[in-house]
Amino acid sequence: MIKLALAKGRLLGPSVRLLESMGYDLSEAKESRKLVIDDLLHNARFLIAKPMDVPVYVEYGAADVGIVGQDALRESGANVYEPAVLGYGNCRLVVAGKSEYKGAEWRLIAGLRVATKYPRATKQYFAARGISAETIQVFGSVELAPMVGLADLIVDVVDTGRTLRENGLVELAEIFKSQAALIVNRASHTLQVSEIRTLIEKIQNSKFVDA
Ligand code: AMP
Questions:
Q1: What distance in Å separates the CA atoms of residue 135 and residue 115, rounded to the nearest whole number?
Q2: pLDDT computed for residue 211 by the predictor
Q3: Closest residue CA from atom 12 of ligand 1
Q4: C-alpha to C-alpha distance for 72 and 206, rounded to whole angstroms
Q5: Which residues of 60-96 are buried (b: 16+ CB within 10 A; e: fewer)?
Q6: Is the pTM of the predicted complex or chain greater than 0.85?
Q7: Does residue 125 register a pLDDT over 80?
Q8: Are 91 and 51 spatial neighbours (Cβ–Cβ below 8 Å)?
Q9: C or N: which end of the chain has fewer Cβ atoms within 10 Å?
């Protein structure tokens, strides 16, 4: 049986539609709160996990394969294969701050504090550029932090930019672009080579486009 970990949240709907377009039965994912869904006909088990946890399940072999955003994948630092990107869940990880930082030499300000759900990617980005900044981890509503003096800047994923705008923030720099990706456990990649190759081919041949 092949085990696939799926990220819940924004990616779950399109991931379920992609897998259904390939013939899998995930009707239970839409109807229940089950975290484990079996499609016995196709010898597949789906695990529904938090995005940041999907790379962990796959790295440790609790799942053979995962569908997750590259933002969560990079943040986890997990040692997994990433054989295909899936073309949906597009967003960008950016540095943002109050509008007065735009065009200013914000990189030179001493004692910057950066609030983020992505502490690893944030520390890497600032360290690689020699910008001195303290990273403060929060677990949601990151845009709140500069408004109340918790931090000077944020690092967060942006899609349309509406959340930044509505909270008086502007984008200052892009860290990386992200979309949904297929990831594979290193041992499964060797041991279940034909199942995994078939899965990758089915994904690549699927005409799925997220509407
Ligand atoms: P937007 O207002 O469209 O720029 O969306 C930004 C908000 O949605 C932020 O609070 C982000 O944390 C969240 N967000 C945007 N894109 C994604 C994504 N692909 N995955 C998870 N969260 C996202």
A1: 6
A2: 61
A3: 157
A4: 24
A5: eeebbbbbbbbbbbbbbebebeebbebebbebbbbbb
A6: yes
A7: yes
A8: no
A9: C
